[in-house]
Predict the structure.
Amino acid sequence: MLSNSLAHIDVAYHLHPQTDPRLHENRGPLLIVEGKGAQVVDSSGRQYIEGMAGLWCASLGFNEPRLAEAAQRQISRLGTYHTFNHRSNEPCVQLVDALSTLSPIQPAHFFFANSGSEASDTMVKFAWFYNAARGLPDKRRIISRSGAFHGSTVMGAALSGLPHMHGAFNLPTNEILYAAQPLAYRNALPGESDADFATRLAEELEALILREGPETIAAMIAEPVMAAGGVAVPPADYFPKIQAVLRRHDILLLSDEVVCGFGRTGNWFGSQTFGFQPDMLSVAKGLSSGYVPIAAVAVSDAVYQVIADEAHGLGVLGHGFTYSGHPVTAAVAVEALRIYQEMDVVEVARRLGEQLQTGLAHTLRDHPLVGDIRGVGFIAGIELVANRRSREGFERGSRVGAQVERACLERGLIIRNMGNTIALCPPYVISVDEVDALVERLRGALDKVADDLTRDGTVLGG
């Protein structure tokens, strides 16, 4: 009875992010009431394997007692404080210390925010500040990529190369340039090797820079693996080749590690997996395993020194949030990092990732709906196609991805439907048996949708 009442209130008054409001009025919410390791329980008592770690973030599952205890201890001692005007707190400093050891940027200086969106905004503002301080105020345009996702704030959404994030909001995207998505399955030429594909994208990037004027471009922002952009895994030498181009033209490289950080790609950070050295990087989600809102930006010493000198001349660095370095969120993040190190999260991600990738390849490689299976570390994407031979995708209004998502829910599995791509990003605490069950349930869902499509007259080719 209570859950029905809550569902009614949710439908009547809750405007959900990244959700069709009218569809929600008819369908109502899936009310999640409890978490057990890598599984969650809804208000009817049904259990689901959470194949997306919530929203790419609950790396340690949904009921880790050590994170709850860390929050309890800190909130009982100092529940809130700020870091403006030289203030700090013990958990914040401990988090800086922990991150400085792990960071691929050495030495690094850390700024704290509350979300990946705020972290993206911060990196862009710092890139602008850095160039203005060097006497280059016109060097402010940002290169992003088609299919990228960098947040939902005004700047984060403008950076995101996803059409639904732009047009309806009339965003100020004039200063954003969009390079090609490094997804070989969709964008490589026939017969083009991964190395040649990466070379071509680097050449196209340089042509874009020269056409627009390198003196107008401050930075390029990139996710090591484009998560919401279809789990697009770049060729191995893509990032070294584009970084060489950026360095030639004095353009910063900003690594959005909000999804890729803390082991997800098989190393602590995605920039390590793909062999590049960012000037700044952002982390969020896994930083606290999603238990509390927190994000951080790591800034290279070269960039920091310019920013610090300019801010000193002005008398203040005019950027920050009330909750930057909040003691409770910092305490939870410190404990999450301890757990990652104790469990050897990189080894766990590699081992579970190999099991997941092997299971998907073995179980789905001949499925009539599956065109491509891709991934690295413990993240994977399955691209759905209407014709395997021609790689023809489904039309935007077909909602085949939504059908697969519903069929997965019926089988006790939560995945992420991104149109023609199904994403998987399970918690690190998932068991071997649960990984196998995840693959089996996904196969069953795909079989159900393929049967339904065939019954409705859709011809699946290939």
